[in-house]
Amino acid sequence: MAFNGFLRRLALTAVAAGGLAAAASIAGAQTTTTPAAPASPAPATPITPPVSQPPAAPTGPTTSAPAPAAPDGSAAAPASPPDTTISQTMTLQPHPVVQVSGQSTWDDGFKALNDSFTKLNEQLAKDKIQPTGRPMAVFTETDDAGFKFTAMVPVAADPGAKPADMPADESFGQSPAGKVMKFQHRSAYDDIDSTYEAITAYLDEKGLEAKNMFAEEYLNRTKSSDDNTLEVDIYVFLK
């Protein structure tokens, strides 16, 4: 679900740019027609006495002509949703994790991620290994049907030998490292697409190029995808 919105925004950004160009041409047309109006009051001023010349203040309406330009500015404001998204450039360092890979459809993504974290935490409890940080999902591949991910839970150190009771699809490894932009999502997982759209707009505005990989770190766990108390930090890896 998240990555789908991340890619869709590229097309939406182009549409928004076309809308702004059209608004600019309309504003230009208005400013060229308004100067033509003052040209007709000008001949009227010599005919009327000097005292009545103050009505030449009808040139004042030309001050109202810039008024249409103000709506243009206000129309441009919604084009910068990244203002509502807190961003931070940083470098992630690798740290030991226990991990499991999986895949899911977009509709079942929240459940698939939660089930993977539950599975990892249960295994750590069996092996008496204490988690040392928040769970993270790294997304590496997507298509129209769904996505592939690696769910990770930080641990203090790689124990070396894999515990005998650990399932074959689970292993110890390292979290991804590198230069990232960190963003925040503070709402339900169902609404995370809008955050990715804002992120894509921000990257386009700043001319930043992202790798085909990003990660979500979950500051808390929620039971349903519509729970508005969810807090997620999103890390977009930069080229």
Automatic annotation (TrEMBL):
<dbReference type="InterPro" id="IPR006311">
    <property type="entry name" value="TAT_signal"/>
</dbReference>
<feature type="domain" description="AraC effector-binding">
    <location>
        <begin position="85"/>
        <end position="239"/>
    </location>
</feature>
<feature type="compositionally biased region" description="Low complexity">
    <location>
        <begin position="59"/>
        <end position="85"/>
    </location>
</feature>
<dbReference type="InterPro" id="IPR010499">
    <property type="entry name" value="AraC_E-bd"/>
</dbReference>
<keyword id="KW-0732">Signal</keyword>
<feature type="compositionally biased region" description="Pro residues">
    <location>
        <begin position="38"/>
        <end position="58"/>
    </location>
</feature>
<dbReference type="InterPro" id="IPR029442">
    <property type="entry name" value="GyrI-like"/>
</dbReference>
<feature type="region of interest" description="Disordered">
    <location>
        <begin position="33"/>
        <end position="88"/>
    </location>
</feature>
<feature type="signal peptide">
    <location>
        <begin position="1"/>
        <end position="29"/>
    </location>
</feature>
<dbReference type="InterPro" id="IPR011256">
    <property type="entry name" value="Reg_factor_effector_dom_sf"/>
</dbReference>
<dbReference type="Pfam" id="PF06445">
    <property type="entry name" value="GyrI-like"/>
</dbReference>
<protein>
    <submittedName>
        <fullName>AraC family transcriptional regulator</fullName>
    </submittedName>
</protein>
